[in-house]
Automatic annotation (TrEMBL):
Record-given protein name: Taurine catabolism dioxygenase TauD
PANTHER family noted in UniProt: GAMMA-BUTYROBETAINE HYDROXYLASE-RELATED, TAUD_TFDA-LIKE DOMAIN-CONTAINING PROTEIN
Top-rank taxon: Bacteria
Native source organism of the sequence: Thioalkalivibrio halophilus
Cofactor: Fe(2+)
Keywords assigned: Antibiotic biosynthesis, Dioxygenase, Oxidoreductase
Biological process terms in GO annotation: antibiotic biosynthetic process
Positions of the TauD/TfdA-like domain: 38-296
Pfam families hit by this protein: TauD
Molecular function terms from GO: 2-oxoglutarate-dependent dioxygenase activity
Amino acid sequence: MNAPVRASTCASPFDLQADESWRAWRARRLACGTPGPADLTVELNDPARPTAAELEALCERIRQHNLAFYRCPSGAAALDRERFAALCGALGFTRPDPHECADGDGISALQVCDDGRRAGYIPYSNRPLSWHCDGYYNPPDRRIRAMLLHCVSDAPSGGENLFLDPELLYIRLRDENPEWITALCHPRALTIPANVQDGRTLRPAATGPVFSVDPASGRLHMRYTARTRSIEWRDDPTTRAAAGRIREILEAEGPGVLRHRLAPGEGVVCNNVLHARTGFTYDSFAGSRQRLLLRARFARRVPGT
């Protein structure tokens, strides 16, 4: 769905005409508060086989804030690719969404890559990674609704992750100027040009809204990147102003932004919230300590949320 639903057909809180539904939803969301990473963390005794209580604790946090952190106990078996896939399965996910930089199992190893198909992409470098929602370059029928990140090893310094629930950003923008929401819901609000290398199209251009109502759940969905190259905003004054305001809010790291440096054995489960990463130290020496995170992305929200 590319625009808020009309009040005459559905009392969606994201319909700019449904004031009563909007105020009720806004009050419920803000009543959840803005807890820190520690409040959103669940201890998993065996991350490959989480208990029903541990899964419910994760889902409870995600239902309220769209993300949760988890921590494996020190001395627990390392969460390798197979055990990471088992955690995804325990949460109710099946095969991750495939893309050109993922491995055969759909899981991506986020680490510095100097050659191969991943070289040149910022997630596989030690450079800062700007604010985005995963899969912003995907077409609507392949939207990414959930994501898991697991830290296998951290960098000697740097590599902090930042997170923000898009619902909080939506509330702030709508409070400040509802016309920004109208512009950001336009079906041509944001275009990511095609990825063409050596005359071959690796990914076609993708055009769509920033905010939309997910037809599968009725929940708010966000598609966004703060990148300034290879991106086209709709040539409209209100759209440009809204995009600029989003950038200002994210750069200020205001209320709701969580900054957390994942330690080995820690991870994130989320409904594809906004996230970013600071730069980190990297040494090409084979025996040096290197940052490695595992990532899996899915077309459905976290089951139960």
